[in-house]
Amino acid sequence: MQINSRLLVRIIKNLPNYIFVKDSNLVYQLCNHNFVTAIGGSNPIGKNDYELPWDKNSVMQYQQEDKYILSTGKSILNKEVPMYLAEKKKILSVSKVPIYDIEHQHIIGILGVYVDITEKKKAEKAIIQAKEAAEVANQAKTEFLENMRHDIRTPLSGIIGCAELLQSKTNDLTISEYANDLVKSSHALLDFHNNVLEGIQVATGEIPFVKKKFDLRQPLEEIINLNKSLAAEKQLILQFHYDERIPQYVMGDPVRVQRILLELLSNALTFTKKGQVTVNIALKKKESREVIVELSVSDTGMGIPKDKQEEIFIRFKRLTPSYKGIYKGLGLGLTTVKQFVDDLDGEIYVESELDHGATFTCFIPFQEPLVMDETTVEEIPLPDYGKSNKAVTTRVTPISSEEIGNSKILLVEDNVLAAKAAAGVLSEFNYTIDIAPDGKTAMERLQKNVYQLILMDIGLPDTDGIALAHCIRLNQWKKNHATIPIVGLTAHIGERKQECLDAGMNAVIHKPLKKETVQELLTTFMQNESSDEPTASTRFMIKGAVIDFDEIKKILRDEKVIEECQQLMITGLSEDLVKLAAGYQSEDWESIQATAHKWQGGAVYYGAKRLEQACKNFNEYWSTSKKEYLKTLYHQLVQEMEAVVEVCCYKRSVVTF
């Protein structure tokens, strides 16, 4: 088919965009129907921009662009321009290109193509607004969940604490039975609360994904051991088979794997009245470094009807409604399993017949690590689903009330019932308890009294507990006071634990505060002089001022040199704190040790005794074969480096020597 000039002109005139051609004098020589309509219907041929219904500023812009194209031969492509066409505001995508003669030696004009993108821009704007609205709603949801955790768990913790105190102090069997029922009911409500919130977190993808090297067998056996008592109580046989061909260490997410087995096993035990539950872990495939493990849980329980087997993975969907009282649960467990299996790029299948039990089978991919030894392997603790009250500590050695003496604890808690319950537990150890209902009162109490331990709620009415901990630490550093152990009390350790530790807290524990938890805290943070084996915290304990300024004057003497050293410390430590964070993120312990070694010597000359000790702790422990406390000592090192920076900045602003 031959296209002559007339046909070409007809094609151009009927194109849906706005098209025009100008000659080298910027006079219109050709345009299509859309362009004529856009400028009001008058024919532009033989006219220039000054003769068309453009405003003065637009004419100047068009002329400037056109002259640029004619002089340089460069095109203008997809430039977004607002423009009034046919008395309507449009957003156009403007493209202008030079037109050459037949020999392609001289520019003889300009071809312009305007594309109306008004609706597209409106759609983009709507998407942006919808995204912003969703982010605002998501933030509101997050704040609601945070408040819900605190506002529900805190009073419940108080109820449990008071009931346990009542149970321990009464000799009346009836009252003790009532108290026991109250504790059980409160724990059931806490479990319900935790499961609902966690189900929402799983559905919205808020649980972070991690990939680390770990011993696969260890966390799975922990789950089996955790459920042995329940199986024995129901007189069920619980079997566990583990394929020895599976590599000892794999790369993957141990938390999700552990939770998958926990949910499947809990379901199997719940829905099985007699018979057995079997957990089988087998090597399905091993190719190169890829390892696919088959995890299956079989039971001889009630089974699942064929027509309901797809519904069991729907959130909040239950085969037996809760009001019938047959089985407990929220309909969230298998939803969580399905989500976690998907997160791991795995597959899950169910085989079941009504009254003939069920088998859930998961195929989970892992990677075999490059080095098959304990290098970088971390111990995987049992999952914390709101039932554990253990602090981030080491093993417990009992400590008696006589060994404590007349020590004081500051309890920062705004809920009256929770504070009363916690104070009741603490008082059993002969402590003097001061209660502060908010951050302001806590700071006032700290100025007037000396405390051996601070227990602090994370959610306070006038400030965030993390901010308060940071403020306490900063105040201690500025005044060169000894560092008081701070333990955070929270309803949800997992999400904010690291924030708490970074702010200067020594540990974070779950509400409610229990007697055995207090026992562990006292053993960890109160040095027992009669003990031959100190705990981790006492072994690496640092005492004294952040900086000994009297020692500086003795060493350096010259005021100008002291000021210069201050600035060097601020600059050097600030730079190395950034390097330490990067090293910690990549688990480059050698670079962290090199930094600790560097500052152990430097701290001596500036009287930074605490920093010197923190560096010494890390270096000495690094030289041993054990690595279990490296993270603890890393956080101690960072905290002391930050303390020196804070004190140096403070001194430079208010003190002259």
Automatic annotation (TrEMBL):
Reaction(s) the record says it catalyses: ATP + protein L-histidine = ADP + protein N-phospho-L-histidine
A GO CC annotation given for this chain: plasma membrane
Keyword Kinase part of the UniProt annotation: yes
EC id: 2.7.13.3
InterPro entries assigned: CheY-like_superfamily, HATPase_C_sf, HATPase_dom, His_kinase_dom, HisK_dim/P_dom, HisK_dim/P_sf, HPT_dom_sf, PAS-like_dom_sf
Domain Histidine kinase: residue ranges: 147-368
Record domain Response regulatory: where: 408-526
Modified positions (Phosphohistidine) in chain numbering: 597
Gene Ontology molecular functions: ATP binding; phosphorelay sensor kinase activity
CDD domains documented for this protein: HisKA, REC_hyHK_CKI1_RcsC-like
Name of the protein: histidine kinase
